[in-house]
Amino acid sequence: MTDEVREATAADRAGIQRLLRELHGEAADATTLPEIRQQARTFVAGDGDGDGDEIVGVLVATFVDYGHEPCGVVEELVVHPASRGSGTGAALLAQCKSWLEALGAEVVFVSAIDEEAAEFYLHAGFTRCTGPWLWAAAGQPA
Question: Which of 47, 64, 72, 118 is deepest in the core (most CB within 10 A)?
Answer without folding.
Answer: 72
